[in-house]
Specification:
Elements lengths: L16 H7 L1 H13 L2 H9 L3 H28 L8 H20 L8 H28 L1 H4 L6 H30 L5 H26 L19 H9 L1 H19 L2 H11 L4 H29 L1 H25 L16 H22 L1 H16 L4 H16 L1 H12 L15 H27 L5 H19 L1
Helix pairs in contact: 1-8, 1-9, 2-5, 2-6, 2-8, 2-9, 3-4, 4-6, 4-17, 4-18, 5-6, 5-9, 6-17, 8-9, 8-13, 8-15, 8-16, 11-16, 11-17, 11-18, 11-19, 12-19, 13-14, 13-15, 14-15, 14-19, 16-17, 16-20
Length: about 500
């Protein structure tokens, strides 16, 4: 294995910090498209003509399809090792597919003849191809973790950058969406979707290029597992899923978190701020105020806890802290007066509700950021554990096994939201600004925004009880892999 100042001996190798920061942008590039597709229910109900429950069913169906394709694409990644490495071809091809298919989805569908069946069928076919491209690029975020670095002090740093980017993306996209809604006056405008697509496509392409450049020196066979080729068959998927306890527990933890996160659709934010608080623009203002403190808290928590205590303990602490903060937010929205956040002219008012919301949101965001973001480098730990357990280097398989179950379970989120809204009368269109506030609508909004989050976090606590990869165990695993490499070289 090549030596560099970032290789610490005993099989431990690393990279300059800027390369970790750059590679983390691959996840940001795909998350941009994820946010774009979170708006698909508005497009389907407004331009294709399907009902709310059907639109929600589409989101679930496509996410299941996305999960079904994962194992096959992961298998392809594990079989690939050419001139341009194992990971970079999938990053580039995936982003190109996303760019082209997303353009067709939001620019061509509504120009077809006004036939709901025709438009919906066309949308489904193109979306199926879109999700293949999405998986192409997403799988690399997890599979390449193992070759970028296996330094236990450096691997969690990826999460610091990833969490930072995701907080900025979440806040930025909320603010951007609010501005577009103000510009067009509604979610149901083709110009809004064009402008949103153009922004996402350009930014995602730039971020992908940066990620490709960042990973280039480590996307080589000497950094793949034990450094030698190992034959992998489809039957190894079942063996890994059956015997690798680490990935089993990580899947339970992350998929339930994702289910909760995906339930927070644009419609839910509209309910909470546009209807319950009677001021939709507050969403962007408050998110902007909490962005930096949340980001700082996430960085401190991940950087200190994960590097000092290990990734398992860091996730456990973050989960418990977020459970407490989320429970307090539920009480605040249930018994507090959300309309007190606004002055008569619609500007932000700093009363008890506003201050309590800001403080609890910062605490919740910072602590939850540990649980939601650290799963990516933890997947790399699971891949190293598989090398230790079976001798097989299968990062593509590991990442896509994780993604398959994760996506199938989290695919229920749009359906859960759609069914809950339909149950209280929203069967044709999703809740919109100006709708009257009812106790039922407030309950659904609070449950989807916070209640389901607590359920996911409690699943984290239970799963981590059986997760075997402590800080000490990972040190043992890296020493064993290093010994295998040394024996092979000898």
């Amino acid at each position: 294995m090549p030596n560099s100042k970032y290789d610490r001996g005993n099989g431990i190798h690393g990279v300059p910090t800027w390369r970790l920061a750059g590679f983390a942008m691959n996840n940001l590039a795909t998350n941009l498209y994820l946010f774009l597709m979170n708006m698909v229910a508005y497009y389907l109900t407004g331009f294709v003509g399907v009902a709310v429950v059907t639109a929600s069913s589409f989101a679930m169906m496509m996410r299941v399809w996305d999960g079904v394709t994962d194992p096959f694409i992961g298998y392809a990644v594990d079989k690939t090792n050419g001139k341009f490495g194992k990971n970079r071809p999938f990053m580039i091809a995936g982003n190109l597919i996303l760019l082209v298919t997303s353009f067709i989805l939001f620019h061509v569908t509504h120009r077809l003849p006004e036939n709901t069946t025709l438009r919906f069928g066309f949308f489904i076919v193109v979306a199926a191809i879109y999700y293949v491209g999405y998986t192409f690029q997403c799988v690399v975020t997890k599979s390449a973790q193992t070759c970028v670095t296996n330094d236990p002090k450096q691997r969690p740093i990826f999460t610091v950058f990833d969490a930072s980017y995701n907080v900025i993306l979440f806040i930025g996209f909320q603010m951007y969406t609010a501005k577009l809604v103000a510009k067009y006056g509604t979610f149901y405008d083709a110009g809004l979707f064009h402008e949103m697509w153009l922004t996402v496509a350009c930014l995602s392409a730039i971020l992908t290029l940066i990620a490709v450049i960042s990973i280039a020196p480590k996307d080589r066979s000497e950094y793949f597992g034990t450094g030698k080729a190992v034959r992998v068959g489809l039957k190894d998927y079942w063996d890994t899923l059956k015997h690798n306890r680490a990935i089993q527990m990580l899947v339970v933890s992350a998929s339930t978190d994702k289910l909760a996160g995906q339930a927070k659709t644009g419609a839910v934010v509209t309910v909470m701020f546009g209807i319950v608080a009677a001021n939709y623009s507050l969403s962007a203002s408050l998110q902007g105020m909490t962005a930096i403190p949340t980001l700082v808290l996430s960085i401190v928590c991940i950087g200190v806890l994960a590097t000092k205590l290990g990734q398992r303990k860091a996730m456990l602490i973050g989960s418990w802290g977020s459970i407490i903060a989320t429970a307090l937010l539920i009480l605040l929205w249930t018994f507090g007066d959300a309309t007190s956040m606004s002055n008569a002219d619609g500007s932000l008012r700093f009363g008890f509700f506003t201050i309590a919301y800001l403080v609890l949101s910062i605490l919740n965001g910072g602590l939850q950021g540990i649980a939601s973001n650290i799963v990516i480098p933890m997947t790399a730990d699971c891949a190293d554990y598989e090398v230790y357990r079976s001798g097989k280097y299968v990062p593509g398989m590991m990442g896509t096994l994780f993604s398959f179950v994760d996506k199938v379970i989290s695919s229920l989120a749009p359906m859960i939201a759609g069914l809950m809204f339909a149950a209280i009368g929203y069967k044709e269109l999703l809740p919109n600004i100006g709708d009257p506030l009812t106790p039922q609508l407030k309950f659904v909004g609070i449950f989807l925004m916070y209640g389901i989050v607590i359920i996911g976090l409690l699943c984290n606590v239970v799963a981590l009880k059986f997760y075997p990869l402590t800080k000490e165990k990972m040190a043992e695993i890296q020493e064993e892999i290093a010994a295998i490499k040394a024996k092979a070289e000898a």
